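step=encode ok
step=design start
structure_in=
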């Protein structure tokens, strides 16, 4: 199953991304993900390049995120964070350009996102996949 959260919550993260006082969560605008899932071990490792906006102050950030879930225990590690200074429309345009630049094995439309699976390898026990998703 593809992991495409609409929000990332500050409380889950090992460090804050936005420093505004009221920041609680980030809305994901774009995410490029590499995922390794091992069903038997109930283990999932996800490394993502994320563009998200603080739901309070609307500042936008690009950051790396490593998400690990082992036996339903989740950890989120934030990598390098860059604030994006361009305006929303320019960012949105760049996101679409990026998204469109990938070749896909197949695409998925959900309520919130367009998702493009770039690569997917499955066997009985594991799934390795690379995918991008962007807010509709
Ligand atoms: Zn903020």
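sequence_out=
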């Amino acid at each position: 199953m593809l992991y495409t959260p609409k929000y990332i919550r500050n409380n889950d993260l090992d460090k804050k991304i936005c420093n505004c006082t009221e920041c609680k969560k980030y809305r994901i605008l774009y995410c490029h993900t590499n995922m390794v899932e091992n069903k038997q071990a109930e283990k999932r490792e996800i490394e993502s390049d994320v563009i998200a906006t603080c739901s309070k102050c609307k500042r936008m950030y690009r950051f790396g995120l490593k998400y690990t879930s082992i036996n339903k225990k989740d950890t989120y590690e934030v990598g390098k964070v860059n604030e994006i200074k361009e305006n929303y429309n320019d960012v949105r345009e760049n996101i679409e350009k990026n998204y469109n630049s990938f070749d896909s094995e197949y695409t998925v439309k959900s309520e919130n996102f367009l998702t493009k699976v770039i690569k997917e390898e499955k066997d009985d026990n594991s799934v390795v996949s690379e995918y991008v998703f962007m807010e509709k």
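step=design ok
step=annotate ok -> The chain has one domain: 7-135.
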